[in-house]
Amino acid sequence: MIINKAYAGTLESSDIFVEIEPADEGAGIELKLTSAVYKQFGPQIEEVILETLKANGIEDAKVTANDRGAVDCTIRARVEVAALRAKGEV
Amino acid sequence: MSKLLKDLKEAIRLSGLKDGMTISFHHHLRNGDRTAVMVLEAARELGIKDLNVNISSVFDTHASFIDMIKEGVITGIETDYMGGAVGKAISSGIMEKPVIFRTHGGRPGDIIRGASHIDVAFVAAPTSDAEGNCTGKMGKSACGSLGYAFADAMYADKTVVITDNLIEGILDKPSISGEYVDYVVAVEKIGEPSGIVSGTTKITKDPVGLVIADYAAKAIEASGLLKDGFSFQTGAGGASLAAAKYLKDIMMEKNIKGSFGLGGITSYMVDMLECGCFEKLYDVQCFDLGAVESIRTNPNHIEITAEKYASPWLEENMVNDLDVVILGATEIDTNFNVNVHTDSNGCIMGGSGGHSDTAAGAKIAMIVAPLSRARISIVTDEVLCKSTPGSTVDVLVTQCGIAVNPLRPELSERFKEAGLPVVDIHDLAEKAKRLNGVPLKPQRGDKVVAEVLYRDGTLLDRIYNVID
To answer: B427 and B380 in one domain?
Structure first.
């Protein structure tokens, strides 16, 4: 699958900014997460991002996420939009 | 003999300041204060170390305290509030002795009853004469009230006034009388005006904050206390100010004449005074330019000492006469205990100020807070630090409803009769958990970095170091 560099979200409080960049086939997902609530929710946020990428068919990509305290449904929405944009579907 | 000395070092020498002593400062210059750092740098240059610093609040302008702690110039801090910059360093465990947190009422109370001795007090005075008669109402560094500095000036062994506006002759109507002052030093500037007072503090535009403010004002109206003679204090946070604005509208509409507004004073309280909502403002600290201008010109806007404001040892203190106080919280638990000392990582970034004093004194202590801020639940099962005991907190107002302390069933009834959304605080905590998920507990060390004293001097809680 060809993916383009794409992003979604903002750096406002309670939002998350997600950027997806292409990676070599078979490279898997390389996720870099920074979060205002990393100590409280770091592993949970990573899990939600990885699940949402998988559900949207993104298998190889560099993903950078800058979280400002978004709840899970916001994270899913931002990741999904970034994925759709990366695939050129929106 | 003249009290006027040539510089700070001479004042420090003559004051007899030695290693191990306690020096004090007040915080009316807020984040613009230069005095505390200036004095400590002079003391360091004189080779003095092991100082215990009793300062009514620590702001980020005092960040060089961190180096002075590491160098051993400062070995103890006693304060009512500590901002994030120094708070983070203290939370990492850089100081051997725990910080002592008091309240704005407990601090002067302890100074006056001798539980907290000050060797040398340094008073930053925006205007002074050569005898040390001084005021905060005039001068290029005008800050308004000097309420927190009175006990220091009156009860310290030696008192040094530092001013950047030394006037000729005798100052008319001083705040602090020169009879308490031993030495006077003129310096170029005691503070940065931009940090001393903010411009006009803005009411929140955040829709969540406005819903909270609306509920808060309606709850006060329904409480039965909003009638002629009503007395009130509010914080300077966006939602608290918005609540004051809505309350003003109700008071104007119903032509209610309150008795007084209290506390740290903002332009919004000044506006309420000028509109006749209150007869008087009693002011321990000015938050903005409008408040400074008002205390200088309006005889009904009256400076009071921190002791008169909130000391639990003074029976006729002002907080005991309060009907309603609106307060903020970084966390509140299902027993209504409030944390205003630490963030959600357990890192110091605040303090009581007058929080627990007003909560204890007022007939209704109302906390206004959103259910969560950036995924951090404000309503929790247990606060990380108990700053204000739940037994003194009556009402929590969130955008998802109003929770009433079970100790106040009559309030709950009144709110329900008025059609307000009364909810159980446990349901709010559950709702926050459903929305945000369950957070991992912050990593806490075993070193006590601060002790939180209640207003009567008893130990309320301990704050431990934070592991990164």
So the answer is: yes
What distance lies between CA A74 and its chain's CA centroid?
11
Tokens found for residue B466: 């934070």
How many angstroms separate the CA atoms of B58 and B78, rounded?
A: 9
Which of these three, B172, B196, B220, is where a domain ends? B196
Count of the separate structural domains present in chain B: 2
Size of interface A-B (CB pairs under 8 A): 39
Task: Give the pLDDT confidence score for residue A2 in this predicted structure.
Answer: 73
**Crossing angle, helix B267-274 and helix B238-253, to 10 degrees?**
10
Flag whether B466 is in a domain: no
The alpha carbon of residue A67 is apart from the nearest alpha carbon of chain B, in Å, by 10
B160 shares its domain with B289: no
Query: Mean pLDDT score of chain A, rounded to an integer?
Result: 95
ipTM of the complex: 0.87
If asked whether residues B52 and B168 sit together in one domain, one would say: yes
Distance CA B69, CA B361 (A): 36
For all residues of chain B together, what is the average pLDDT?
96
Same domain for B255 and B305, yes or no, is: yes
Range of the domain at B40: 4-56+104-196
- Residue B325: which of B240, B259, B384 has the closest Cα? B240
Query: What are the chain A neighbours of B376 within 8 Å (beta carbons)?
Result: 37, 40, 69
pLDDT of residue B204: 82
